[in-house]
Design brief:
Oligomer: single chain
Number of strands: 15
Strand order of the largest sheet: 7-9-10-6-5-11-12
Shape: globular
Strand content: 25-35%
Structural class: alpha/beta
């Protein structure tokens, strides 16, 4: 997702125009590219960009060295994570990663519409460093103007007519706006205040409290169930099916999104129906968050998967 192969020209000082030369590392379209699309609807349905757990640069320079990257470290190396409906190529948000989310929809600044989400993060769940870092910014600024995520953007199916976004994170908090087109001073998605933090981007409406609200009113949050199909022998698949059936008896009906569990990530299909919060204990966690596959050999990882399934089966059997 936006991986850099050769060094970009240096952007510094007042030099924020690379000229007309094309990006030598531009990914194939269409744009915005799959895996880097965000949107905001309500505390049950949104996507934000976070460090990409499958990015070779972050793996080699951070996680493989026992270091968690910050928002700043991951600029140019992002992946969209979603609560609720998934954007193309996105991963489900790990359970417990977001401890507060406060959404404001159809707001206006200088005659331009925007949606906004602010909140708090459990960065340990996300394998991120958030201490003392409130200056990391992801946005849709073009390559020519030194954008580091120039092929990211808004998932317009969920935010029709919105073209730009700005997201800032650090200090265990995050804020993001999706907006109609415009990134200059005075626009709701101005990209010029990354070092100023969320307080400036949100115009004083930043809310990092725990809990969930929509346009100022309390909001009940549910989570999405993800059915996992293990690429293993039939017996193991039957155990996994039994686990999920037991979970459904305990938690009641609600929406289902299908996914295939692989060694390095979730491959996720579009969500289908609706869901309940109690189902969250064994769902919504990419493989990279469950088992840290980049630190585990293939052989031990296969054995770990079998043990993991049997453990869960036993828990459901005897509880």
């Amino acid at each position: 997702m936006g991986k850099k192969i050769t060094m970009d020209p240096v952007c510094s000082g007042n030099n924020w125009d690379r000229g007309e030369a094309p990006d030598p590392n531009a990914p194939h379209g269409p744009y915005p590219i799959s895996g880097e699309q965000v949107y905001i609807q309500d505390p049950n349905n949104y996507c934000i960009n976070l460090p990409n757990p499958d990015d070779p640069y972050l793996i080699d320079n951070f996680w493989n060295k026992g270091i968690n990257p910050s928002f700043v470290d991951a600029e140019g190396h992002v992946r969209s994570f979603c609560v609720g409906a998934l954007a193309p190529g996105a991963l489900p948000m790990p359970v417990g990663a977001v401890t507060g989310a406060h959404v404001r929809t159809n707001q206006a600044l200088n005659g331009k519409l925007y949606h906004q989400i602010t909140g708090s993060l459990n960065c340990d769940v996300l394998r991120m460093s958030c201490v003392g870092d409130n200056a990391g910014q992801y946005d849709s600024v073009p390559y020519r103007n030194c954008g580091k995520e120039p092929y990211s953007g808004v998932f317009e199916e969920k935010n029709p007519g919105f073209k730009d976004y700005v997201e800032i994170g650090g200090d265990f908090m995050f804020c993001m706006r999706t907006c109609v087109a415009g990134r200059i001073d005075g626009d709701p998605c101005s990209a010029k205040g990354d070092t100023l933090g969320c307080g400036v981007l949100t115009g004083g409406t930043m809310d990092t409290s725990e809990g969930f609200t929509l346009n100022g009113a309390p909001f009940e949050v549910t989570t999405k169930k993800v059915r996992r199909e293990f690429p293993m022998e039939t017996a193991t698949e039957l155990v996994a099916d039994t686990m999920m059936a037991s979970a459904e008896l305990v938690t009641g009906t609600v929406v289902e999104a299908e996914a295939t569990f692989t060694a390095d990530s979730w491959t996720v299909a579009a969500p289908s129906t609706s869901t309940s919060a109690a189902q969250s204990t064994i769902v919504q966690t990419p493989a990279s968050n469950l088992v840290f596959p980049h630190f585990v050999s293939d052989a031990s990882f296969q054995g770990w998967k079998v043990a993991y399934v049997v453990l869960w089966f036993c828990m459901f059997l005897f509880v």
